Amino acid sequence: MSSTQRPVAAAGRAPARPTLEEVAALAGVGRGTVSRVVNGSPRVSEKARAAVRQAIDELGYVPNRAARTLVTSRTDAIALVVPEAETRLFSEPYFADIISGVSAELADTEMQLLLVLVRDQRERDRLSAYLRAQRVDGVLLVAVHRDDPLPGVLEQLQIPTVLAGRRGERETLSCVAADNAGGARTAVRHLLRRGCRRIATITGPLDLEGAQARLAGYQEALAEQGLDDVGQLVANGDFTERGGRAAMAELLEREPELDAVFCGSDVMAAGALQVLRAAGRRVPQDVALVGFDDSIVARHTDPPLTSVRQPTEEMGRTMARLLLAEIAEPDRARRQLVLPTELVVRDSA
């Protein structure tokens, strides 16, 4: 019998399961390479990975999960944790794009993706107990609030973790973020070149480092032109459409002569646009408007929204790659990556 032929089962008995060694022989690689492919390790060339995948399909090989868990203490599961209410999860394209990127990166691995919402202390405690029971191999944490104790719990449990964004400048966990400050500076400089001088901003929740960075970028761009006195032109929002409406109404009451608004998200910009229209302000003739995300929202407002594009789906892919690498090599150095942003100019500015 050749090394790639399957043994014939005795009458009345189920055929023998293909083995890891048989997959390796058919693929022309070592047993360790097959094991790394099955376990989702990034330390395999694309050529070898494709050969192993083809051999697995031809032989109908199915990993013995129970045996592998006993040997490796692996669960083949990753938790994607969103510490937000479900209303934000389903109303903001940002979350859908992150999940899409993570799912795409995990598609060719054996990892199962678990989506976990954490909305209050009870759910936080329940998740902590779940993690302490070693039910997952790693965690992706989206929307990191400054005072959230969960990152500290993950560090204490030594669970491989990657954050979307960071808690602050001294972040110790691996993280992936967009260039929030740089994107905001680019947006405000664009408004200044248009001749705008009374440029307001609607921030996201300032306990999120990303929202703080967008506010800082806005302030830096104005300071470059000597426009430092912007206190009356800053209104806090919460990344929701309702919050954008409330903040825009507040800004118009404080500063009726404003001529531009930089919003910390497209969803808030859509809310601001409604208030501007109701107040009789034309966009962009009277008030120029810029958002952040370049989500589907930006392309469907009237007028279409100028917005800072952040590579949200690629952020999800990158987070998943970093986490797989940490799971495969728990002692590897943690990485903190910043992905570039760009301004997409449309009719609103």
Automatic annotation (TrEMBL):
<dbReference type="Pfam" id="PF13377">
    <property type="entry name" value="Peripla_BP_3"/>
</dbReference>
<keyword id="KW-0238">DNA-binding</keyword>
<dbReference type="InterPro" id="IPR046335">
    <property type="entry name" value="LacI/GalR-like_sensor"/>
</dbReference>
<dbReference type="InterPro" id="IPR010982">
    <property type="entry name" value="Lambda_DNA-bd_dom_sf"/>
</dbReference>
<dbReference type="Pfam" id="PF00356">
    <property type="entry name" value="LacI"/>
</dbReference>
<dbReference type="InterPro" id="IPR000843">
    <property type="entry name" value="HTH_LacI"/>
</dbReference>
<dbReference type="GO" id="GO:0000976">
    <property type="term" value="F:transcription cis-regulatory region binding"/>
</dbReference>
<feature type="domain" description="HTH lacI-type">
    <location>
        <begin position="18"/>
        <end position="72"/>
    </location>
</feature>
<dbReference type="GO" id="GO:0003700">
    <property type="term" value="F:DNA-binding transcription factor activity"/>
</dbReference>
<keyword id="KW-0805">Transcription regulation</keyword>
<dbReference type="InterPro" id="IPR028082">
    <property type="entry name" value="Peripla_BP_I"/>
</dbReference>
<protein>
    <submittedName>
        <fullName>LacI family transcriptional regulator</fullName>
    </submittedName>
</protein>
<keyword id="KW-0804">Transcription</keyword>
